[in-house]
Design brief:
By secondary structure, the protein is an alpha/beta fold. It contains 12 helices and 14 strands. Helix 10 runs parallel beside helix 11 and helix 11 runs antiparallel to helix 12. The longest helix has 17 residues. The chain is elongated and about 70 Å long. The structure holds phosphoenolpyruvate and manganese (II) ion.
């Protein structure tokens, strides 16, 4: 349930209303307070009459019941106002949200060694993208496949940040590693396979670090938003939703099915920022540029793209990874597109960049 306060209500009156609301056996929290203050009531509100609340003050404009099972994640809870996730990085604060430029996260599936992660980060930086990604802890289908270098890879990510000023996004798989990962990451990723790992979600909520929550392999939109609710309920409002493709019946030609319809659908349901990952969604680098552009046209707030200096030799997800050269080209192509859709981003792209990309492609990891 939310209590919407009229604009220009004196702060002391808002405080008094909050005080009165505390008499009910529910959690009371201030949700948004730009022009209008909105106060959320959480818990069992079924016995609370809307009229009773309305009577508390003539400054109460409206009392609305949030019908969705996801309360804090719902668009209604913020009275229709989109939320944003502002992430401090050495290069400045990067904000994910509907009223902000497109944010691009790029990098290898796994952090393999110092040279490749630093070199990739340099290309990523040169294109104007804002985050380097790379897994230290990898969720692999086979126990015999490369599992990630773990803690030492976190150190390499920190070196890549030092060298470029980019923010870091990396995945946590186990509650036991949460502190270590959160100490290095600027955004902590919860992968598709852990979307309903409720212990991990609670712990992610407790860190206060921005969380990138990937959609589960076969998760419904409601299950995904309920997973986000766990993080929000644990006191962390900084959640970004990442669509990375869902299981469908064709595994032969695409790894997953990119559900781009989630963008307009989520806009009706939630205030949270959205990311699209065309790399895991398609599984093949040749399809990544098309779906990247489609995602921008559909209004995504951010993108996650896998890039590897030498995809043929990658320890994981090589087939879907762009070469640095292809990534540079893609970033050039999407700059005017982002501009067209009102998500222009100041690109740091220079003529020197293609050379840098080509050099890295031909030297690193070969
Ligand atoms: C990843 O980002 O490398 C990853 C494993 O993604 P997902 O959880 O979407 O499969
Ligand atoms: Mn991957």
């Amino acid at each position: 349930m939310i209590v919407v306060i009229k604009s220009q209500t004196p702060a002391s009156e808002v405080q008094r209303i909050i005080q009165e609301l505390h008499r009910y056996p529910v959690t009371v929290e201030k949700v948004v307070s730009n022009d209008k203050a909105v106060i959320g009531l959480l818990g069992d509100t079924t016995a609370i009459g809307r009229e009773n609340i309305q009577q508390i003050s003539p400054f109460i404009e409206q009392v609305v019941r949030v019908k969705q099972p996801f309360k804090r994640a719902s668009l209604e809870y913020r009275y229709g106002e989109p939320s944003e996730v502002a992430v401090p990085t050495p290069n400045g604060v990067v904000t994910f949200g509907q009223n902000h430029p497109l944010v691009v996260v790029a990098g290898p599936c796994s952090v393999e060694n110092e040279e490749m992660i630093v070199a990739t980060a340099q290309v990523v930086k040169a294109t104007g993208a804002q985050f380097i990604r790379g897994g230290a802890y990898k969720p692999r289908s086979s126990p015999y496949a490369f599992q990630g270098h773990g803690e030492s890879a976190l150190g390499l990510l920190a070196l890549a940040r030092e060298a470029t000023g980019l923010g870091i996004i990396t995945e946590v798989m186990d509650t036991a590693d949460m502190e270590k990962v959160a100490a290095v990451a600027d955004v902590v990723q919860i992968g598709a396979r852990n979307m309903q790992n409720f212990s991990l979600l609670k712990k992610a909520g407790a860190t206060g670090k921005p969380i990138l929550l990937k959609r589960g392999l076969s998760a419904t939109i409601e299950e995904w938003l309920m997973a986000a609710e766990y993080i929000l309920a644990a006191g962390n409002p900084n959640v970004i939703l990442c669509e990375r493709g869902i299981r469908s019946f064709d595994k032969q030609y695409t790894r997953n099915t990119l559900d781009l319809s989630v963008i307009p659908v989520l806009r009706t349901l939630t205030h949270l920022p959205i990311m699209i990952d065309p790399s895991h969604a398609t599984g093949y680098s040749q399809y990544v540029p098309t779906m990247t552009k489609a995602a921008i046209a559909a209004g995504t707030d951010s993108l996650m793209i896998e890039v590897h200096p030498n995809p043929a030799k990658a320890l994981s997800d090589g087939p879907q990874s762009l070469t640095p050269g292809d990534f540079v080209e893609l970033m050039q192509e999407i700059a005017p597109l982002a501009q067209f859709f009102g998500r222009g981003t100041k690109s740091a792209f220079t003529n020197a960049t293609p050379n840098l990309a080509a050099k890295i492609s031909s030297t690193v990891g070969v």
